[in-house]
């Protein structure tokens, strides 16, 4: 065979694989608004950077006539490329080939590219579009999932792991995304569930559509399984590229620095976005935007547990992670979901060298039978654990209310915040003045000739004594009481002096966070 015919043969072999599941299957994919696996990778990665491997891997199934079938690439595309010029490892399941189902060799391809990512210390991106374990391959398919979950766990905190759900992700397959750091979903395209509508109907007699059970909105708003929600695949890829500007490539690096920019002070002036009436709620995202470079804030889990806001921004060009109570949602209380959301974000920041800025304004943990029975004790403890364990620079600003357990939990000096600043509007106390006065002055109020008048006087007395930052400052729990307009300056300086921070905990195999 001449060189020419050999190169010709390679071309032909490649062409067969690159067709995926064939024209009909590709048309079906497109008809429901989905791109093919390779199109997705090309859209996401820098132009011309994608290099595909293991194109000629074949499935190993023998039963149910599988030995007579050819499944191009065994239904998954794997390779390396760059995003914003930095290397990534990537895989995308190809639904046009046997429904992207995961057989033994399909899983081997995924595991191989995950192993590369760990060795090369690059992020791994998994695009999920699959009917789950390949039914014809039985336990060999299941073993593949186990191998992936194990790798997800070992890679956790070492390299960023991104899951993109662009089709079905059913059964045990959902646990790979659940073990990764950020899950991206697209409206009407993503579907995630452990047991689908048919099983639910058979077992429980309940009827529900795939969309209502595990569509993108459900996971972005209700379950909290998704971190980013997009209207289209293209928007989703832009979100991923943007996220990669804020996070480092692995846990030994810091995120890339950008030129420092001032906040957009016309739109987001701290004194304009913070209300002068202490009873009035405000959107804490506006406060964040009044502090950070170019007023740009990438919110994570925007639609889930909105009573806490988490996300990335930059100060003087360097990435920081914000955790902020949101007064316009449930008065910014901590509950089960907001504690989970914050704790997970704090741990990501700590694992990947992102300093944490906490903005506090909250009346405490949410009271109620539902919350107690849902385990607010266990969930609430996660935020305490995550902050206490975090050794990245931790800077807290108390804007208004810092009551009770919330005062402690929101990165107080007791959990080893490096710096705690308070605005003059801060109220640091065991509980709100109304509740406190009703308890400690109960007898005086009851026995008074005018209980309502006495109650008001006692509330005012308590407010005067405790609803300010100066008592906490007098004990050194607050490092400085600052003017709101000085916030960016104080945070910038704190970040600067924390640059060489080194903090170590006692050696142990691992801690036992309240999972
Ligand atoms: C083998 C599969 C498959 C699977 C789909 N296909 N899922 N082949 N194993 N798990 C094949 C179909 O037979 C079909 O092949 C092609 O993929 C396209 O599938 P369609 O059904 O035509 O597509 P659609 O109508 O869009 O429906 C998609 C779907 C449905 C909703 C995902 O295919 C489905 O319900 N699949 C099974 C989902 C499931 O129960 N998975 C759980 C497996 S157990 P042809 O040749 O006709 O084109 C599991 C446990 C893992 O995952 C545990 C890990 C811990």
TrEMBL record:
InterPro entries: AccD/PCCB (IPR051047), AcCoA_carboxyl_beta (IPR034733), ClpP/crotonase-like_dom_sf (IPR029045), COA_CT_C (IPR011763), COA_CT_N (IPR011762). One of its GO terms (biological process) is carbon fixation. Residues 259-508 form the CoA carboxyltransferase C-terminal domain. It holds the Pfam family Carboxyl_trans. GO terms for molecular function: acetyl-CoA carboxylase activity; propionyl-CoA carboxylase activity. One of its GO terms (cellular component) is acetyl-CoA carboxylase complex. Residues 3-259 form the CoA carboxyltransferase N-terminal domain. Belongs to the AccD/PCCB family. This is Propionyl-CoA carboxylase beta chain. It comes from Candidatus Onthomorpha intestinigallinarum.
């Amino acid at each position: 065979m001449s060189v020419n015919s050999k190169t010709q043969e390679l071309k032909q072999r490649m062409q067969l694989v690159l067709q995926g599941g064939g024209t009909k299957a590709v048309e079906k994919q497109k008809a429901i608004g989905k791109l093919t696996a390779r199109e997705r990778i090309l859209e996401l990665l820098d132009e011309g950077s994608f290099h595909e491997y293991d194109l000629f891997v074949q499935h190993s199934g023998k039963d149910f006539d599988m030995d007579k079938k050819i499944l191009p690439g065994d239904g998954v595309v794997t390779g390396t490329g760059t995003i914003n010029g930095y290397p990534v490892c990537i895989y995308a399941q190809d639904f046009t080939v046997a429904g992207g189902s995961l057989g033994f060799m399909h899983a081997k391809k995924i595991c191989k590219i995950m192993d590369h990512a760990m060795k090369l210390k690059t992020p791994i991106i998994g695009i999920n579009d699959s009917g789950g374990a390949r039914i014809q391959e039985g336990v060999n398919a299941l073993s593949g999932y186990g191998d992936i979950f194990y790798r997800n766990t070992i890679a956790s905190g070492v390299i960023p792991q991104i899951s993109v759900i662009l089709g079905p992700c059913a059964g045990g397959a959902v646990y790979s995304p659940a073990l990764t750091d950020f899950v991206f979903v697209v409206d009407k395209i993503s579907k995630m569930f452990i047991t689908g509508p048919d099983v639910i109907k058979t077992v429980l007699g309940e009827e529900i559509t795939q969309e209502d059970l595990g569509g993108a909105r459900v996971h972005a708003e209700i379950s909290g399984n998704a971190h980013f929600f997009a209207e289209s695949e293209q928007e989703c890829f832009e979100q991923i590229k943007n996220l990669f500007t804020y996070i480092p490539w692995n846990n030994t690096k810091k995120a890339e620095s950008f030129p420092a920019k001032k906040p957009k002070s016309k739109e987001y002036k701290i004194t304009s976005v913070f209300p002068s009436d202490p009873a009035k709620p405000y959107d804490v995202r506006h406060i964040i935007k009044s502090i950070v470079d170019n007023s740009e804030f990438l919110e994570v889990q925007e639609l889930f547990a909105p009573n806490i806001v988490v996300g990335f921004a930059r100060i003087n060009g360097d990435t920081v992670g914000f955790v902020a109570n949101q007064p316009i949602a449930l008065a910014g209380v901590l509950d089960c979901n907001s504690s989970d959301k914050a704790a997970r974000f704090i741990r990501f920041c700590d694992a990947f060298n992102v300093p944490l800025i906490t903005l506090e304004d909250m009346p405490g943990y949410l009271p109620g039978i539902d919350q107690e029975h849902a385990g607010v004790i266990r969930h609430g403890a996660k935020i305490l654990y995550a902050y206490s364990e975090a050794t990245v620079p931790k800077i807290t600003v108390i804007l208004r209310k810092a009551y009770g357990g919330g005062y402690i939990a929101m990165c107080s000096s007791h959990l080893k915040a490096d710096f705690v600043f308070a605005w003059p509007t801060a109220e640091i106390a065991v509980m709100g003045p109304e509740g406190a006065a009703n308890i400690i002055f109960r007898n005086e109020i009851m026995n008074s000739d005018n209980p309502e008048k006495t109650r008001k006087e006692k509330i005012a007395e308590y407010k005067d004594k405790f609803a300010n930052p100066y008592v906490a400052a007098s004990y050194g729990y607050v490092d400085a009481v600052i003017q709101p307009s000085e916030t960016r300056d104080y945070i910038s300086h704190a970040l600067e002096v924390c640059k060489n921070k080194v903090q170590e905990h006692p050696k142990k195999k691992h801690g036992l966070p309240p999972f």
